[in-house]
Amino acid sequence: MAGLPHFYYHPRMLAYDFGPQHPLKPVRLERTIACTKALYPWLQCIEPGYASEEDVLLVHDEDYVEFVLELTEHGTAVPEELFGRGFSTHDTPPFPGIYQAALAYSAGSARAAKDVCEGAMLAINAGGGLHHAQRYRASGFCVFNDPAMACAILKEKFNRVMYVDIDLHHGDGVQAIFLDDPDVITFSIHETGRVLYPGTGFIQERGAGMSVINVPLEPGTTGDLWLQAFTEVFRRAVDVLKPEAFVLQMGCDPHRTDPLGHLECDVQSWLGAVKEVRDVGLPIVAMTGGGYDIANVPRMWSAAFLTLGRLEVPARMPDSIPVEWGCREIFDPPLGPGQSHGHESVETIIDYWSEVLR
Ligand SMILES: [Zn+2]
Question: Which helix (H) or strand (E) covers residue 285, if one does?
Answer without folding.
Answer: strand 284-287
